[in-house]
Fold:
Amino acid sequence: MNKIYFDHNATTPVLDEVFEAMVPFLKEQWGNPSSIHWAGRGTRKAVEDARESVARLLNCTPLEIIFTSSGTEGDNHAIKGLAYAKKDKGNHIITTKVEHPAVLNTCKHLQKDGFDVTYLDVDTDGLIDLNALKSAITPRTILITVMFANNETGVLSPIKEIGDIAKEKGVTFHTDAVQAAGKIPIDLQKLNIDLLTISGHKLYGPKGVGALFARRGVRLVPLIHGGHHERNRRGGTENVAGIVGFGKACDIALKDMDREITHLKALRERLEKGIAEKIPHIKVNGHLEKRLPNTANISFEFVEGESLLLNLDMKGIAASSGSACTSGSLEPSHVLLAMSLSHELSHGSVRFSLGKSNTAGEIDYLIEIMPPIVERMRSMSPLYAAAK
Ligand SMILES: *Cc1c(COP(=O)(O)O)cnc(C)c1O
Structure:
């Protein structure tokens, strides 16, 4: 059976070069980077070289990078760390209804702890209204957290504008850039972002490693207390092999970015055009231009998304509905509902997220096998019979 992977927003395969860079640090280079003797010096250098690679991808300084265990930890550290550091100044946080659970559930936790959270609406394209953001800011607002790119739709937030508003109002701005990093340029010298989260396994690095950018001067209460690691910002002996692999993945992402954007955009266009031509009653979700190059979120009317995914899986095609973190719960996507899609359309949505190794042939195979599957599923729907 063909094995075709269209779920790169859930995770990506580890690149060969990344794997090879990691191997020495799983075996002969086992020293503790905090040790000053010979065993630790090599691993310290490897960690600091990786920090430079991450900083280069984001155009910030290495001192502003804190290694974490995941994107989830980075989001928690940024949001809780800032909230606790600034709680004497205010208790109000602004976010959106379409954030990843790592942000939404962290904000919900803080509500139990006395913080007020505003969840901004999005329009049918998945974009927030900047005037609504401005009017939500009060003298007690300490943090704005809005994602760079949405994991379900790929929609890109107006990060430059949000940063400018936050700066003007003196509010700290965090963005979850886990989906954007490595896929599109991020220039921290040009954007007023104070805190930014990324993750290794979404950009062809290993799982279990991420980074939080904290702009010089932004104070955070640590999430993990311990030794003097990460300049007292995160305790725990470093995941050296993971960090090295992550650094390598950042180098490759930066080097290949322009070529990948062209490749992915062409494949996505082929996919969306092919499906639109062959299958009636579909809708592409999210702003058509302000989107990551690799993500296509498509609603199929009169179809149950989960069964469509099972049928695709039987043909060797891996795709997903919503995020990996919420699938399996049969709730419709909170992102699509926030974009005012009906429950039915939200349930009938599939996310195809493309990556480096995907080919036009794979897209063509999808477009060939999908129409009969969708037609068969629809033929069992009484609503479809009525609409036809
Ligand atoms: C995957 C993802 C996360 C979580 O990152 P992990 O490293 O898997 O914890 C956070 N935010 C977004 C937008 C994601 O896509």
The chain has two domains: 4-11+257-387, 16-252. The mean pLDDT is 96. The domain at 16-252 is CATH 3.40.640.10 (Aspartate Aminotransferase; domain 2).
